[in-house]
Design a protein that fits this description.
Chain lengths: ~260, ~260, ~260, ~260
Amino acid sequence: MAQIEMNALSVITCGSITVRIFLPGMDKLALDDSGHTKKYPVVWLLHDDGESSVQWLASPAERLSEKYGIFIICPEQHHALCTNMKYGPKYEDFLKDELPGIIKNNLPVSTDPKDQYIGGIGTGAYGALKMALKYPGHYKRAFAVNGILNMEEIFRRAVNGEELKIPHTKASLEAVFGDFNNFHGSENDLLTLAERDASQKKDRYLLILEESDPFRADNERFAALEKSARLQIIPDGSDCFSCQTSLPAALKWIFK
Amino acid sequence: MAQIEMNALSVITCGSITVRIFLPGMDKLALDDSGHTKKYPVVWLLHDDGESSVQWLASPAERLSEKYGIFIICPEQHHALCTNMKYGPKYEDFLKDELPGIIKNNLPVSTDPKDQYIGGIGTGAYGALKMALKYPGHYKRAFAVNGILNMEEIFRRAVNGEELKIPHTKASLEAVFGDFNNFHGSENDLLTLAERDASQKKDRYLLILEESDPFRADNERFAALEKSARLQIIPDGSDCFSCQTSLPAALKWIFK
Amino acid sequence: MAQIEMNALSVITCGSITVRIFLPGMDKLALDDSGHTKKYPVVWLLHDDGESSVQWLASPAERLSEKYGIFIICPEQHHALCTNMKYGPKYEDFLKDELPGIIKNNLPVSTDPKDQYIGGIGTGAYGALKMALKYPGHYKRAFAVNGILNMEEIFRRAVNGEELKIPHTKASLEAVFGDFNNFHGSENDLLTLAERDASQKKDRYLLILEESDPFRADNERFAALEKSARLQIIPDGSDCFSCQTSLPAALKWIFK
Amino acid sequence: MAQIEMNALSVITCGSITVRIFLPGMDKLALDDSGHTKKYPVVWLLHDDGESSVQWLASPAERLSEKYGIFIICPEQHHALCTNMKYGPKYEDFLKDELPGIIKNNLPVSTDPKDQYIGGIGTGAYGALKMALKYPGHYKRAFAVNGILNMEEIFRRAVNGEELKIPHTKASLEAVFGDFNNFHGSENDLLTLAERDASQKKDRYLLILEESDPFRADNERFAALEKSARLQIIPDGSDCFSCQTSLPAALKWIFK
């Protein structure tokens, strides 16, 4: 078992980026692979808004990278909501193109789309599902833990001055998405993306959440719109605030 | 000698913040101070845009904290340019109020304004001087290393599609400052702040930069507008890309 | 919630030390405490051999520091087994004297023995119980998670060339304890210390472990020798390899 | 430019190891290398005793990795003095075999001996030269910054109770080397290794140090014994306590 903290320059986000990476120890990294031709599958993992990649240190990610012989790569994204910000960095492009480029140049990871998986928690789950829906050729499967999927409703509350349950404001959401009136039906509107998805491949999305999750209805709505999504409810408290149940379940589903 | 990396939640910036802190070792932290009443001076140090607090690890900050018996506190600010962003976190409020609150609650630092100093490099220098000019009662002295002080000119170039020398774009500068047409004369226009400064206290600002610094003219202009500023030119290359000459000189000036 | 990584020089261990600290966020650190006279209780937490303080990042320590309004302080100790090594640093002295000195000079922690608690996992549990037994005036309570308490048996196996279940060898154990023949009955022999303990204060030690823990018998033996110890068995797997059940239970017991 | 902090398990040293790695940014890592067959030269860099790999964060290592298109890899070694300890981990084996194995499995580094360089500062320089002398087929060149090369004299002083200039004691040196009487002429006696070196390849070792370095005489003695060593004296203070002059000079020499 090993973990890496990488600090590097990103051209697309115009700055220093921090990425935490969990990888198998020596015994899983095939030591007899003298030509070093073996490339490992990747799970891209997106933290919640208000958190950072430090969030994943508390999860079972390192142990699971060992168990499955994979790289789990956790970039930071501040408040970008996995989006090419109207006023700010093009985080979506960063995640789609630049980061995989940096990683494949440095680590023995596969670049084959069938070895790419993406997941996230909270607003990171919104980002993970959006990436998988917009770029179906890039990722084989995607999962959401406690997903905050209905960004239109969040934005609407912000515009109306109602209390949000995520660390954003009207201004910070406008910085990401631009004007609220243009949000519905846009390429950042996850529920619209789900509705429009024609492929409806089987068993492509997993939505996993605790029973009393406050955003459960939106997850159910997503699952109703997107036939390839499966909902998995876990008992309240079973995640111990750190994906102790959900992340193992998600990776079991991915690598079944 | 010691260094701390602190990750904490910030209410004002709506998220996880990273702060690096350099502090003296045991012999400078008065060990016979059994009541722990001694409080240490603080130098707040702002990194350049496109960098992070990691930038200061390469500088002599840790050694200087030991030499002077002070805390050097280096928050991260991403692309906020030390400003209450139009579309984004209120970084100026964070730096003025919330961060000092977090720090004073955790570390034995003085809260007396006469023990507060602020400095920065590049765009961080812009931030440091802006804080000192806008909140003269909060900081005793301020310094700029290779200061990028004429943000109006940077913004103008961005609006005109000319090449910038900082990792920003028209959109990212609008996210910080709002519309370009409102910038001149605003409270984010450092040169206007300098011009208006009525106090003109003696020896309050130090601008230190290498001989051929590309932004030297703007530093000279600031020094011409602000009588309490002193310009110190150091030989090209003497900073070794890591404040080897400038930071010792700045702290020598501060604590003379 | 916040966490700190501190790198500092230690005179006693002759080198650079790394300490991870979990502390409450702003709302638990009394903000109206303008004189900063409030001092917080401390739980000293010792990692397992073969691990480092990184181990605690995966535990609920940060969340629990918030819940109870305490500082949880996790020093690194490499292979020192919380002992003044025969051939190596005097880690016991470091933990007893130097580290608390460094910490109290830098952080708002109580130095009152009634606010000091110590715990550990695996061999770190051996260390925690040893400290509490040898220095009863320094700590109010101590706990062991999956404690590896019978160091004599470990050492005996090493001397006999049998397989150990901890990352040590005969030579590395001799480096810590000196000759095996002098171990039994020494001040590093935890079971002897327990047997000799005359105070037998009520409810002073908690031994918490999963049902099938391979070292369970030694924990039961310790509990039989030390009347002030209480054994708490938790279901197999309930700790999720990261103290998800044991650490909350231990802190609940401490602060009941 | 990028930097990595890796925490991994090491079988040989029986524990968690920390390694800091400096590597070029995207433009130096050939992006058109679609087969990822390019492998980069490595400089192994050993910190001083009493320090950790954090020491190199303050050096120009990151900038130089960019300049030369190389990986600079800085393992931690605590007090092992780059030696298979009598009482402790086999650090020499770790550095010679296990660490290169971990690295080559994870990063695009060359394993060709002609792409391997090793250097160190203080006692790390002792380690670097020892590795290069004992394993001439493993490294093409080696360098010492402010080398502490006469370990016999250090050990003799420790045995005699005289003041050392390194953070060790008689016991800690015995833990590393065993009995003092067996040191002279052993494979840990660097001056003997230099004297015996039959190859005397041209321009293989660089000893670089400030003019008034307290260990200068031992460096001169090494250079007299080892014909392939070159001494380079730099002005006092020019290293700014952080290899600002020596490390660039050493890499210029390596890659000339």
